[in-house]
Amino acid sequence: METAEKRAVTPARKASGVEGVNARQVVREIRKLAIEYEQHGDPFYVTVWTAPELAENTTVPEYDPTSDTGYQRLPKNPRVHRAARYLEAGGKFPGAILLSIRGKDRTLISAQRVREDGSARLVELTIPEGVVIYLVDGQHRKFAVMEAIEDGSHLENFGLASVIFLSEDEIDEAEQFRTIHKEQKNVPTDLVDRILDRAVEQNRVSPVTLRQQGEFKKVRDLMAIRVARLLGEIAGSPWIGRIKPPNEGLLVDAAKEAGQEPPTWELNEASLKTSLGPVVELLDGRNAEEMADFLIAYWQAVIEVCPVAWRDETGYPYLHNTKGIYVLHAFFPACFVHSATLKGGPTMENFATILQKAGVDDDLFKEGGELVNIGGWGGFKNKAQELVSNLAD
User: Is the pLDDT of residue 182 over 90?
Assistant: First the structure.
């Protein structure tokens, strides 16, 4: 499978008094009293940190689109500001922050038992200088306390409960993040889905095994994120350079610092992934590369029948945003099935024939046209069903 060459600008490293952004290490030996307990043989340590301690000794594993490492979004300033105001008004953060120590660094820490207490132990936890501590969950709380301190609040000793766990590597760590946010909080975790994709590429996770375990939703999530990524990479795809990656601000800042024109995008990767639900469900059982190849042929057919709309994003905006993309992906299953009855099966030419018969043309995506008041999955599917009904004529 041929992929387009990636031309990413490496973000400039910001001065931080350490090796660089996302490379913060413990600056001096840390000793803390901790409650040690185990789950399935793995140790956990309940500790208390102040925000200045966290700021000085921990790093947030932010996603870097140039290296495809990390799994968290950049902090949202409005959220930090609101949390800081909440603290300044006497608010509290009783929930625990989650910290991780990975890989070989796990062997460098030590826990000296102070007192036994049934299933838990009081220990003195020692973390040597140079160990990297990753802040898995709680970055907004950390930054909010620091902002409140900078604003004059005397919160230097404001305690934040923290649970430290030991991870094999970034993928193992990110799975904990995924569990917290996707399984419990139902917040966007498309970056963690990328980690799942990497785990498959490294043969640490098998889609076949996930199916055998009944993890069908996880398989669909995996396929959707892989297809979304491939649409931005495979040579011949109309979407190369048009899909906005997570933490795109790093790329924009890097381009500006390099004196280059900042990149722009038309479609959010997370939104594209969601729109692929009907495609992934129809093609379930095929690999992501096959799905992507079919979709590329489909979009080439869309451009064939809607050349003006594809070229003129201002006069025909809906072909390039969620309205058109969601409607077209909702229509894809019917287009695929009908094209399969034609000689040659699901090809670009046959997709174009079915799209034209369904009434897909430039005017469908015109500014102020029939898609202007359509929104939500229900509306997109209803419009797609109208297109399907045209095939019966």
Answer: no
